């Protein structure tokens, strides 16, 4: 199937409505952010179980802080790309019912998406690990303690050793259960339990579309697999909407 035919096929599915979007790091790399699991990704040069963990936060805070300052905080020049913008447009037009994301950068929200469910939390707001009160990003980056209790500030990401947040999991379950088409954008689909949702959608009779530069474990059950850039492919799809 040609690039054009693939785009026309996706446009037909999107125009039928009932779309759930599932996004991973591959979408954010097109905004200039580094991904996690590729050969040159963040985890290729750092051990996440040591640096992005509860143990690091509690026992090795200086290293924890430096890791998040150097690797994960999103510079102001990083902005939503055309892929984020098209997803937001489709939601506004009523085709997309919600976005499930593994990303912590909030680029979906910056692009205008509203119904976004963050499985792994987000970099902001910063909060105190001890009392839970909200702090400021500036204080966190400066290594300052919580102004209320003196506890350690941290981003609101899910660290290794923590459970995924319950409400986003429930929302993801609902969106996967009722959608007509489930579109994966830039996820390797190797992280559990997140990779359960495309399987769930497919088992409920939804069309499964995977747009990712590299093969994924779920390509064999997908109705459409596109190994192209997300922004380029969604832009081509927009021509037929």
TrEMBL record:
Active-site residue list: 120
KW Transferase (keyword) present: yes
Stored InterPro entries: DHS-like_NAD/FAD-binding_dom (IPR029035), NAD-dep_sirtuin_deacylases (IPR050134), Sirtuin (IPR003000), Sirtuin_cat_small_dom_sf (IPR026591), Ssirtuin_cat_dom (IPR026590)
MF terms in GO: histone deacetylase activity, NAD-dependent; metal ion binding; NAD+ binding
Gene3D superfamilies reported in the protein's UniProt record: SIR2/SIRT2 'Small Domain, TPP-binding domain
Domain annotation Deacetylase sirtuin-type: ranges: 1-241
Keywords, comma-separated and alphabetical: Metal-binding, NAD, Transferase, Zinc
EC annotation from Swiss-Prot or TrEMBL: 2.3.1.286
Name under which the protein is recorded: protein acetyllysine N-acetyltransferase
Organism for this UniProt entry: Cloacibacillus porcorum
